[in-house]
Amino acid sequence: MYGYERAGGRIGIRDYVVVAYLVECAHHVARRIADPFAERGAQLVGFPGCYPSEYAHRILEAMCTHPNVGAVLLVSLGCEEFKRGALREAVRASGRPVETLVIQACGGTAATIERGREWVESRLAERRPPARPIGLADLVVGTKCGGSDGLSGVTINPAVGHAFDLLVDAGATAMFEETCELIGCEEHMAARAVDPGLAAEVHGAVRKARRYYQDLGHGSFGGGNIKYGLSTLEEKSLGAYAKSGTRPISGLLKPGVRPTRPGLYLMDTVNDGEVRYGIPNVNDTQTVTEMVASGCHLILFTTGAGSVVGQAVAPVIKGVSSTRVFERMAGDMDVNAGTIADGVETIEEVGERILAEIVEVASGRPTRSEALGHQEFVLGYKTYEPLGPACLPT
Amino acid sequence: MSPTANMVVMASGDNVGIATRDIAAGTPARDVRGCERTAIEPIPQGHKIALADLAPGESVVRYGVPVGVATAAVGAGRLVHVHNVASRYLNNDEDHYE
Fold this sequence. Notes:
The complex is a heterodimer. Chain A is of the alpha/beta class. Chain A folds into two domains: 2-132, 3-Layer(aba) Sandwich (Rossmann fold); 136-371, no CATH class. Chain A has 15 helices and 14 strands. Chain A has helices at residues 27-34, 54-64, 84-93, 103-106, 109-125, 156-169, 186-192, 196-216, 223-227, 233-241, 284-293, 323-328, 338-341, 347-362, 368-371, and strands spanning 2-5, 11-12, 16-21, 42-46, 69-76, 98-102, 132-133, 140-145, 173-176, 249-253, 263-267, 298-303, 316-320, 335-336. In chain A, the strands form three sheets. Chain A has a seven-stranded parallel sheet with strand order 10-11-9-8-12-13-14, sandwiched between helices. Chain B has a single domain (7-86), classed as Archaeosine Trna-guanine Transglycosylase, Chain: A, domain 4 (Roll). Chain B has no helices and nine strands. In chain B, the strands form three sheets. Chain B has a four-stranded antiparallel sheet with strand order 1-2-5-8, with no helix packed on it. The radius of gyration of chain B is 13 Å and the shape is globular. The termini of chain B are far apart. At the A-B interface, helix 10 of A face strand 7 and strand 9 of B.
């Protein structure tokens, strides 16, 4: 495997040129700039809000300085509140080429698109093949499930869990999330924490998720689950939890905070404080974005019904729980774990196949969603308190 | 490996297996490693079959983790579901928050 070495020593597995809009009013212009280069590695990200948000600034900065990114074009309308100067300085300080185009100063839509395309074209022309030998220990991998079905917790999620064990044993960094879907797993998770202070933080994160969802009025277990054979809330949670494997939990993260050393991490994706803005995660894509902001090079996305999403800055490997859906959506799916239910492969064997897939994708082979041009990205308003001191034991 | 497997046991020490296909009463539930129990009653796909006799109050263990408590005696080979299991958190289909 070869990767891209960035200033400061971080390693990337892609060399994307990111075009970032800093307010929704600049979205169209940014999209038109990036569109012609979509097949060549120009990726579109951005924040729609005008009112400033410390959280959104942190996540967007993390995207623009992500090791999979080689150059950044910022597209501003001009009158939005986003601190574009601070973002530009952060990208420049990271050693990357960066340019800001302010639509109101450039002379409007057409002139900005023209200048933006010239800049992106020049950066793409400067790219070189990856030259730095890398291993599994250089990788940060996240996992997420979406569109789960009755077999997800039996086939693909435990198989990802086995792949996570193999990654952690190889010295890699791995992270899982969805504390709201882990209610009932907190005792087991806390027992896996590397020290008692972290165990208490894990308990606290799940308590917060439970309270937040009760306040919101979301149900988490019901008729559909029972129909497919799940008997309790904690059994349902376990299906998602199986993605985390069995290794010790080394720390608790919040979006944008990077792990301090290799190992397995839990990310707390639920807002701090009282319910605000209605929905903590509007969809799977925002949670994936948060894990990428915390440094994930690639994402293992598990699905039952058949999600098709990718991500703008990190390749997404999609694993599906049944052969039936794999065959119906073969063009979108990278890994079929339905073989476990078919009785022809064990959980461990599928886990080893997932690890082999990770090696190929980290070596540059596009995932299905990458090849199809998926570049999902969502960033909304949220608020977080700083991490507690016990969250990242040294 | 056995292509006739119709059950997955998630971890050693589990006292339930998961049917990967509908299993008819009186027929064997088998996993790829050779664990086998005869289904006493129909076990639909995705549902749990008891691998051992469960006493009332005993934990139902799946993937090495307790996922509920038996509310009645459940014989090996029986269906394990909401009629004989309760949550430690929010009770089954009625008391979960909406």
